[in-house]
Amino acid sequence: MARNSKWIIDPGHSEVQFKVKHLAVSHVTGRFRIFQGDVLCGNEDFNDAEIHVTLDTGSIDTNNPQRDAHLRSPDFIDAEKYPAITFDGLLQKDGDDYVLAGEMVIREVRSGVRLRAGLTGVGTGRFGDTRAGFEVKGKISRKDFGLTWNVLAEGGGLVIGDEISLLFDIQLIKK
Questions:
Q1: Does domain 5-174 have CATH number 1.10.357.10?
Q2: H/E stretch holding 145
Q3: d(CA 160, CA 16)
Q4: pLDDT class for 5, splitting at 50, 70, 90?
Q5: Number of H helices and number of E strands within the chain?
């Protein structure tokens, strides 16, 4: 399929968030402040669109500087050695929504990822540009990417859960 339409992520109107269980009682929520990406498609409904996203690992933010420094360390994403997390995938219609399936790379470890996506709207921006919104949700296992650091809590459970929930609110601008 010819993919002659290009859209780019508008980082000023998008969010890339994650959530992970802490002490088996609550969640820690974070986000990546710096990211970029594009969508290449050949039709107006985004079916079979190619998706390319890069997250800046140094921009991880959980609203706790000490925890953020630990997450950037070699115990986790090792931001100095691995400055980016990447995702390349294909968006395909599935009923009224989409499946976004592809490959995520964290610390040079590749793993297949399957997420759900919903088109939240298409419209004209303030300066006449065409925009589209997507909400993307899913879960990944951090162990699939070799992110296994953990410690036992006083009660015997693990401090950090394996499952990471992802929530991306993405606004695209047609180029």
A1: no
A2: none
A3: 20
A4: very high
A5: 1, 11
Beta bridge partners of 115: 100
The SS3 of residue 2 is: coil
Q: 6-39, pLDDT tens digit by residue? A: 999 999 999 999 998 876 677 889 999 999 999 9
Share of the chain above pLDDT 70, in %: 90
Left if phi > 0, otherwise alpha if psi is -120 to 50, otherwise beta: which for 18? beta
- Token output for 157: 């459970």
Q: How far apart are CA 131 and CA 136, in angstroms?
A: 16
Token pair in block for residue 137: 């949700």
Q: Minimal CA–CA distance to 57: which of 93, 22, 81, 23?
A: 81
Asked if 138 contacts 5 with a C-beta cutoff of 8 angstroms, the reply is no
Query: Among the listed ranges 28-32, 81-85, 109-113, 147-151, which one has the minimum average pLDDT value?
Result: 147-151
User: In the chain, where are the structural domains located?
Assistant: 5-174
Nearest to 107 by CA among 68, 140, 79: 79
Give strand pairing partners of 72. Answer: none
